[in-house]
Structure formats: structure tokens, C-alpha cells
Hints:
Layout (H helix, E strand, L loop, with lengths): L1 E2 L4 H27 L12 H14 L1 H4 L6 E2 L5
Parallel strand pairs: 1-2
Amino acid sequence: xxxxxxxxxxxxxxxxxxxxxxxxxxxxxxxxxxxxxxxxxxxxxxxxxxxxxxxxxxxxxxxxxxxxxxxxxxxxxx
Length: 78
């Protein structure tokens, strides 16, 4: 589905994406803190790391994920 940059749907998807990434970061940091013997800094997990992981995952598993709807937006910002 092609969306117009800044339309209500695109802004909602973008906002929800930001929120869920922040929730993943908090959950992963919580898990890291539960296992201090792993010697991992909880702050090594951040929104940028999670966002890149999700993008890379999507690219690696593109064929398996084609059955799920995906929106497209033409923009210079991302």
C-alpha cells in the first residue's frame, strides 16, 4: 500500500513503530539486568540497535514475510 508522507496512517504507523521499539529496548535491558554474570552493559541495547536488527531481519527473511502487508511511503526522510 502506498501512503502519502505525513498522512494520518503513515504517522500512526511511524509512531507505533517508535513505541514498540522502545518497549523492546526496555524488555531486553530488563533481561540483561536479570543475568549480571553475562557482563553485558544494559545500555548496549538501544533503539538504533533494535531498529537495525529488525530491518536486517526483514531483509534476511523477505520471502517468508511477503505474506504480511507492508506499507510504502515516498519521502526523503527515511
